[in-house]
Amino acid sequence: MEYAEAVEQAPPGWRHFTIEDVARLPEAVWRHEMARIPDGEPGERIIRALFWTLVYHLEPEKWDELARHEPIHPDLIHALPSGVDIALDVGAGSGRLTQQLVTRSRRVVAVEPSAGLRAILTRRLPAVSAVAGWAESLPLEDGCSHLTAASGAFGPDPPVLAELRRVTAPGGMIALISPESPEWFEAEGWLRITAPPLQAPHHPAWLDEFFGPLDPPHELVTMRVDA
Questions:
Q1: 204: Cβ contacts below 8 Å, ≥ 6 apart
Q2: How far apart are CA 35 and CA 33, in angstroms?
Q3: Residue 33 neighbours by CB under 8 Å, 6+ apart
Q4: SS3 of 213, please?
Q5: Rounded to the nearest 5 degrees, what angle is found at the Cα of 221, between the Cα atoms of 193 and 10?
Q6: Residue 60: what pLDDT?
Q7: What number does CATH give the domain 70-224?
Q8: Which residues, 6+ apart, have CB-to-CB distance to 120 below 8 Å?
Q9: CA 101 – CA 109 distance, rounded (Å)
Q10: In this structure, are residues 85 and 104 in contact, taking their beta carbons and an 8 Å threshold?
Q11: For residues 88 and 148, what is the distance between their CA atoms, to the nearest angstrom?
Q12: In the chain, where does the domain assigned CATH 3.40.50.150 lie?
């Protein structure tokens, strides 16, 4: 997501954070995120732009609670291949999609930059190999994955898409659930599946107050990597 768009679309919970919280981010995360902040930006815009980063790295339990109450539409899961050798979840969070990939593959690797979210995922899914890494520089070998997937993490970002292709074996699938700008992917030849929106299950009121109205994922775009 572009910087200006992230500022504009920040959920109400951005007010929960302060500029001092930005300084509390792990050093490598701070450097990575501040690289996209224009010089001279006021603190409020920086906080708004980094809302999701602040949640992921400082209060991962909040993200985990949100993910539990925004289940992925089952039609999207059923559209994914099964019986694959290795599946990769990029930006895995606390494992919302990862747990589905476990049932569809012999081995799952989850890439997640947040140490707190990786810890939750590892406790929940100890058989999954959870590694630290950024989507634009995946710490994985070329062609290692037969199903490379992500949920609610990416849009038409050329460096990220190039990395997803690099790590996907010829004939394998890249599958993005709730991507940004799904119409862009469709125009570029990706297969787009739109399932009927699901109502979020009963959940604490603070989730809407903090994150805005819940919207369980119901869009999927997929592409086969040329053999």
A1: 65
A2: 5
A3: 25, 50, 53
A4: coil
A5: 105
A6: 98
A7: 3.40.50.150
A8: 60, 61, 64, 94, 95
A9: 9
A10: no
A11: 5
A12: 70-224
16: nearest Cα among 60, 73, 61, 55 = 55
**What is the rounded average pLDDT of the residues 133-162?**
94
Q: What's the mean pLDDT in 108-133? A: 97
d(CA 219, CA 196): 9
**116-144 burial string, b = 16+ CB within 10 Å, else e?**
bbbebbbeebeebebeebbbeebebeeeb
**Alpha carbon distance, N-terminus to C-terminus of the chain:** 30
* 219 membership: H or E segment, kind and range: strand 219-224
Report whether pLDDT(112) > 90: yes
Using a CB cutoff of 8 Å and minimum separation of 24, what contacts does 130-139 make?
130/92, 134/32, 135/90, 135/91, 135/111, 135/160, 135/163, 135/164, 136/160, 136/163, 137/163, 138/90, 138/111, 138/163, 138/166, 138/167, 139/111
Q: Which residues contact 79 (CB under 8 A, 6 or more apart)?
A: 175, 193, 220, 222
